[in-house]
Amino acid sequence: MKQLQQQRVPMAERTFGKVVALARKAPEKQLDQLVKAVAYARQQVPQITLDLYGYKDPTNNFLAERLIESAIRENNLENIVTLHDYTDQVAVVEQDAQVFGVTSSMEGFNLSLMEALAQGDIGVTYDVNYGPNAIINEGKNGYIVPLNDYKFMGEALIHIFKEPRLIQQLSDTSYEMSYRYSSDTVWAQWCLLLVDAKKCGQSNKLIIFI
Fold this sequence. Notes:
single chain; 210 residues; alpha/beta; Rossmann fold; six-stranded parallel beta sheet; 8 helices
C-alpha cells in the first residue's frame, strides 16, 4: 500500500471534529444514520462536521440520497454536513479528517476503511460481518458499535473528540496496524499458506500409496 509510505499527519494538524465517509450513497450504506450520529454527537461536541463522498445510487428513485438530505434537514445540519460526488483525491480527504465512519447494514472487506486507517484516521463502524470486524481492533484503532444504533455511534464520536491524548493514540495505532495489509506482509502469509498446502499434498499422497 503506497499510503503506508506517506508522511504521517498528526491529529493536531487536521480539521478538528471532521468525520468522513467514502461510499456510494446507496441504501445498504445507511449514510443517513451517520448524519444522525453526528447530530447526536454535536450536542456535546459542536465542532463536529461530516463530509460524504460517493456516487448517488439511483435505486428506488435515489432513495438513499433523499434519506440523507432528509436527515440533514430534520437535524438542521445544512452547514455541518457536506455532500460530495466521487473524488480521486482520497488521500487529501483522509489526511484532513480525524474519523472515518461506516454505517452499512452489510459489508465485505471494506477497502475504503482500510485506506482511511492507513492515513491515520480512526474507524467507527457498525458491528456487521465481515470486513469491518476484521479491520477494526476495538479501542485500539477505532470502535465497533451495535448495528443500527446511531446514538451509540454518536457516543463513540463524543468519546473520541473529548480526549485529545486518546485521539492521537488511536491515530498512531491506525497507522501501525495498517502494516498488516502491506504487500510484504500479505505475501509472507501467502507463502506460509502455500508451504502448508504443499506439506498437506505430500501427506495425502503418502496415505494414498500406503
